[in-house]
Design a protein that fits this description.
Number of strands: 10
CATH architecture of the largest domain: 3-Layer(aba) Sandwich
Distance between the termini: 64 Å
Shape: globular
CATH superfamily of the largest domain: Zn peptidases
Strand order of the largest sheet: 1-4-6-5-7-10
Number of helices: 10
Structural class: alpha/beta
Order of helices and strands: HHHHHEEEEEHEHEEHEHEH
Bound molecules: zinc ion
Radius of gyration: 23 Å
Number of domains: 2
Strand content: 15-25%
CATH class of the largest domain: Alpha Beta
């Protein structure tokens, strides 16, 4: 009889239960290890946010600080873990040492070359703080610095799983944010990178201040209009037309500027309506995983169409 066959004693039953649990765990493990097989791999805003938390825990990433150096080591470590070829070209500008990080992943033969960039440094002085005493403190830089890096680091995980046709370079620029301060200027790291290119990329996309919980990204006026139109159309197709607003607003000198100067199509994705800009209030609570998610999804989808 069937019932007889399954008449197990308690020790045998215990073994069977353990076997079943084991099989379920192996199944879960396999589905996690092979994400591309079953479901498309999604950009995860929460994972990006965790990268912002790490940077903020180091402290303000002002050039020359320990936090600045630790951030660079952290970025290099994450990139290497996801199989990117990392270069750390050092340069000098205005007598300052500038430490950029570039990570490249080759695409298909004949595919385009795209640079996705963000600055990782923070500003020495929160000179827009309403409190004069706090104006001498560094900008914590949750949105202005950490947010763009956070999205790039999550893209570092995601892009290899999608294996895009484009060759992608993730650029982490130093010394973007210290213009107007004695001995420094804006966009120093990206200037060194743009000026050193012997071969020109097909497109450069900069992410800066894209973590604001109240995210509205207008078209930046100096950006390449055709490239911007592509990215804003991609955002609209994903249902984010209310975040990527298809109207020009600010003109901003940012890390895309030195590439434009070399006649490379370049876009600055930036939400410049940020009341905590260059204040001591540019802290983690002002940025949201959801905003990082939206920008990451849009950039990922755009890269995959290239
Ligand atoms: Zn700034």
């Amino acid at each position: 009889m069937q019932a007889r066959k399954w008449n197990l004693n308690s020790r045998q039953l215990h073994t069977v239960v353990l076997l079943c649990i084991g099989l379920v765990l192996v199944g879960v493990g396999l589905s996690l290890a092979l994400p591309g097989r079953s479901a498309p791999v999604a950009f995860e805003g929460q994972r990006a946010f965790a990268h912002a938390e790490v940077q903020m825990a180091f402290g303000a990433r002002t050039p020359g600080s320990e936090a600045h150096e630790r951030t660079r080591a952290y970025i290099a470590d994450v990139l290497a873990r996801h199989g990117w070829q990392v270069q750390q070209p050092q340069g000098e500008l205005l007598g300052q040492q500038v430490f950029n990080l570039l990570a490249t992943r080759p695409g298909a033969e004949g595919g385009p070359w795209i640079i996705l960039g963000a600055h990782y440094d923070s500003r020495f002085f929160a000179d827009h703080d309403p409190d004069p005493a706090l104006q001498l403190q560094p900008v914590p830089g949750a949105n202005d610095g950490a947010s763009g890096v956070a999205v790039l680091l999550e893209l570092a995980r995601i892009l290899p799983l999608h294996d895009p046709a484009a060759t992608v370079t993730l650029a982490f620029f130093d010394a973007e944010d210290n213009g107007g301060i004695d001995g420094w200027d804006w966009i120093m790291g990206s200037r060194l990178v743009a000026d050193s290119l012997t071969e020109l990329p097909d497109a450069v996309v900069i992410l800066d201040m894209i973590g604001d919980a109240d995210l509205q990204i207008y078209l930046e006026r100096s950006s390449d209009p055709r490239l911007a139109a592509e990215i804003w159309a991609q955002a609209a197709a994903l249902g984010y037309a209310d975040v990527f607003i298809n109207e020009p607003k600010f003109t901003i000198m940012d890390d895309h500027t030195p590439f434009l100067a070399r006649e490379i199509p370049a876009v600055d994705i930036i939400d410049f309506d940020y009341p905590y800009w260059h204040t001591s209030e540019d802290t983690l609570d002002k940025i949201s995983p959801r905003s990082l998610q939206i920008v990451g999804e849009v950039v990922l989808a755009w890269v995959l169409t290239q």
